[in-house]
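pls design
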């Protein structure tokens, strides 16, 4: 199936187990901070009707009074958005990820003060260039970036909505486990490569739009002040400012006698039609 940006449907991986029961998707909990006014609305596609029940944030651009007041960007728990998903089986080839991508972000002032590199795009590739990971805005445009040493920094702005776009340029399936600010994007807990992630099919794209709150809904990723970030509100601000993607290959199908028989099966027999036996 194709991953469409208009009505995104993504596959949630769960491991092969002895029992046949269906794995339950853990969801990122709301920070439950009460209601604050918000002017953040996406012009192309608004939040779902249930968004009124979710705390909103004032994430509009604002000037910082002093350098001490400027604490850089974090990722907020934004408005609810429809983003379909369903579960599928995926068995990892190994328990260790094949590749781990790290992509940092901050506002222009924070990054430019430490960088003298030319402008880049916020896109990373694995060694084989089978998978690319990009930060894109609400219209799918890749965010600008600068390099600070060996680290790639995407440039964001307060109030801006962003998405994580994972493209599979190969003929294999991959599982991607994503974290934002040190938190897992599916359950909102501490990020770990032992947790399960999203499946990206061969020559396809997965767009991760936010913290998953339901099989059919996410809370959008929006840049905002570090102190207002989801991680800070959850009491874990230590890793604010970095996005991680762990990439897992799928285990190759196991050999069985039936597979060998099918490999040698012929669609037609080369003999002529025999005469009847009566």
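designed seq:
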């Amino acid at each position: 199936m194709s991953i469409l940006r208009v009505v995104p449907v993504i596959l949630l991986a769960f491991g092969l187990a002895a029992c046949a029961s269906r794995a339950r998707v853990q969801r990122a909990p709301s920070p439950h901070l009460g209601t604050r006014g918000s002017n953040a609305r996406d012009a192309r596609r608004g939040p779902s009707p249930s968004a009124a029940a979710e705390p909103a944030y004032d994430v509009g651009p604002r000037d910082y009074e002093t350098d001490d007041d400027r604490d850089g960007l974090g990722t907020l728990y934004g408005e609810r958005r429809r983003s379909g998903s369903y579960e599928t089986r995926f068995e990892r080839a190994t328990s260790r990820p094949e590749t781990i991508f790290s992509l940092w972000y901050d506002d222009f002032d924070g990054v430019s003060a430490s960088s003298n590199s030319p402008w880049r795009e916020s896109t990373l590739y694995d060694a084989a260039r089978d998978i690319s990971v990009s930060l894109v805005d609400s219209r799918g445009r890749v965010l600008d970036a600068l390099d600070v040493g060996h680290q790639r920094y995407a440039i964001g702005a307060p109030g801006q909505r962003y998405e994580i776009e994972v493209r599979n340029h190969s003929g294999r399936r991959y599982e991607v486990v994503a974290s934002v600010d040190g938190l897992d994007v599916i359950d909102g807990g501490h990020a770990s490569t032992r947790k399960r992630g999203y499946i990206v099919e061969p020559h396809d794209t997965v767009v991760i739009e936010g913290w998953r709150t339901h099989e059919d809904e996410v809370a959008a990723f929006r840049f905002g002040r570090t102190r207002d970030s989801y991680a800070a509100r959850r009491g874990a601000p230590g890793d604010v400012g970095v996005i991680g993607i762990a990439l897992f290959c799928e285990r190759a199908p196991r050999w069985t006698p039936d597979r060998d028989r099918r490999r040698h099966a012929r669609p037609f027999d080369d003999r002529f039609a025999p005469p009847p036996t009566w």
